[in-house]
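Helix-turn-helix domain-containing protein
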Amino acid sequence: MRYVEAGGRITAAARLFGVHRQTVQGWIRLARGDGLREARKPGPRGGRKVTETALHPALLARPDAKLKE
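Predicted structure tokens:
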């Protein structure tokens, strides 16, 4: 990011690295220290988990059930 700090344009840096302009802006924020510290994985933050105590009666009631049901 020295290029941008030295007066280069963000758009030109994005073209140089083959990334979107917002990606370069994110890199600059990270270098300054005011961005996110570590990358987060995409997708839902938590899952729906069925406890064994809830699953057992359901399986007894419908032993032929499939995963999608």
